[in-house]
Amino acid sequence: MSLNDAINTLQNHGYKMTHRRKAIIKYFSTSDGYRTAKDLYEHMEAKYTGISYDTVYRNLHLFHDLDILESTSLNAEKHFRINCGDHHHHHFICNLCGGTKKLNICPMDDIGTLLKNYTIDDHKFEVYGLCPSCKQAS
Amino acid sequence: MSLNDAINTLQNHGYKMTHRRKAIIKYFSTSDGYRTAKDLYEHMEAKYTGISYDTVYRNLHLFHDLDILESTSLNAEKHFRINCGDHHHHHFICNLCGGTKKLNICPMDDIGTLLKNYTIDDHKFEVYGLCPSCKQAS
DNA sequence: TTTACAAATCGTAACCATTACGATATACTA
DNA sequence: TAGTATATCGTAATGGTTACGATTTGTAAA
Fold this sequence. Notes:
2 copies of one chain form a homodimer.
Chain A: H1 3-12, H2 19-29, E1 35-36, H3 37-47, H4 53-65, E2 69-74, E3 77-82, E4 90-94, E5 100-103, E6 119-130, H5 132-137
Parallel strand pairs in A: 4-6
Antiparallel strand pairs in A: 1-3, 2-3, 4-5
Chain A binds a DNA duplex through α2 and α4.
């Protein structure tokens, strides 16, 4: 999802476009990887001294609800990335830099009747390790 | 993993077998599902009034390190279950009761050369929803 | 442009899961 | 049964997250 798509989504839902919101979306839309609330806070703090955690978390939740961001839970901490938008896929996630790589396979294609009497709400497939550049650096 | 397997594992590694440890292992080995530290604490508190969080968390970590328990991170909270032990597989996890069902498919079988220059450390495939009994109850 | 007001942010405190540590109790070994 | 290393308790601290009254800001109407 691009910066403009995200801005449109916000405005179409009647939310105000603030400087902080634009900066948050910019932060995620220009980086292909998962970031924590703390990562975002520190990035924002540089430009908006004294920014409140309330602002950071409220907007992370809002953007997640609007599908501008997607999230995953790693080591009991939430991580966020810009929503890829295009058709369903999963990710490799680098343990060091949070960078991602798209994986165009989905195990649900093969789930068949394994969960016949179950209600399926969601699923997660993630591969963890080191991306080529972190691998080389370490 | 059975209660006895877990006790042997502990003793083979030189750890003491305490009443609390036995009760913790029993709690997990007799329930097929994911439980939080709080779930365990409340279960233990009934029998061992005033049990310390230190005891709960220290043993959860120890058991995890010894592969007696496996863990997953859901909604930024760690959940634990007894290690299944038999050959590699994944789980359906019920959003209400934490119960699990084994899924004998693994997307890594199809990963091919998708991550050629990457180091792969770990992966996760989980399906979430309602198990048949929670589905009926709700 | 200015005004008016709903919405967003700040400053800060509280909450919850988790970790940590000195003092005490317990399991195991000899 | 005694000695010692280890486990537990009691409690405080930490880190991520949530919450809220007071203030500021974006937007739309005048």
